[in-house]
Design goal:
By secondary structure, the chain is an alpha+beta fold. About 15% of the residues lie in helices and about 35% in strands. The protein contains 5 helices and 26 strands. It has a 6-stranded mixed barrel with strand order 3-4-9-5-8-7. A 5-stranded antiparallel β-sheet has the order 16-15-18-19-26. A hairpin with a 4-residue loop joins β24 and β25. The protein is globular, with a radius of gyration of 28 Å.
Amino acid sequence: RSPAPAHSARTRRGASAVNFVNMIDNLRGKSGQGYYIEMAVGTPPQKLNILVDTGSSNFAVGAASHPFLHRYYHRSLSSSYRDLGRSVYVPYTQGRWEGELGTDLLSIPHGPNVSLRANIAAITQSDRFFINGSNWEGILGLAYPEIARPDETLEPFFDSLLRQTSVPDVFSLQLCGAGFTQNYSAGSSTVGGSMIIGGIDPSLYVGELWYTPIRREWYYEVIIVRIEVNGQDLNMDCKETEQFPSGFWLGEQLVCWQAGSTPWHIFPVISLYLMSENTNQSFRISILPQQYLRPVEDVASAQEDCYKFAVSQSSTGTVMGAVIMEGFYVVFDREHRRIGFAVSMCHVHDEFRTAAVEGPFHGVDLEDCGYNVPQTDESTLMTIAYIMAGICALFMLPLCLMVCQWRFTRCLHPLGTGDFSDDISLLK
């Protein structure tokens, strides 16, 4: 299929003339443990490593000692900290934390040259949230206010950044995963990447950017219209792509090979087709096994490389996390409500295959592929309420008659020892 002429669904390189050199390579992390950026919190600044997360909306930092934290945020040492007098509890797909809300001054040393006051949750208790050896002490939720905790009135960090500065409403991520890190070796899986705040850096990707609309502003929700494995269509209803066959999601066992001999070629390429800005067209991103097979540390011996299948299911749809983003340059163009994909400069490849972003592919009414969670309208809820009230009345009527009869009997007979016993029996 030959590519069509340039259109609105894609953007050619060189579209951004701003220099973001200070932000290049400002992310660090470990395979499977997320990517973090250094932030300065409070006055005087306390430098902390903060996990970058596009699937939540709270900015939170450890504020008490924890076995997995080498350092944490000391509110008492910041003259600019303000207590909001509210508590907050946030559960994630894995792990949870709770803490106390406040505001403080924040800046990003390797980000835009600005300082702002933003909401901050001081984590005082957590369960399976912090990761031993991950080297990050907090989380930066970059999604929309709708999923902020305790409610959507708590302004997320990026919204505060936009309101208080002139930074444009866009950020982009280049995540360079362990599968294609030059100095990756067993036991040393530090990876890097770049978070460009306020724009797009053409030096971080090759080819063209292809855009898919943001369907709903809570998570960054987009529409997947088709899935292929090694070029074979899974033939699933596009509305039901979040309900994969159970075998597709099995990740309960590890696979291991002699160190350095992993047979990548025997694993298929997974292709996701995303609806483009032209709703009758789509484009595909191709994901190699070096992305969806995650190295597992502390299991393999020095003579073996072990991996697990790193894609999992969610009740709200298919989560396109770091497993998919690694190898692509991903643009979160919030201003125009769209997400862009291009092949990253640190993209995964082997002797035979490479990650790719290709299109356009034609279809009909692709917008109809959006999955809708069934919702009950207000009139239906009122009907249910009246029915429940009627049922309750039917059950309460006999009880009321029994109580009236008992009261009437007490009025006819003087209260005595025997009646006292009967009273106790009735109450039981």
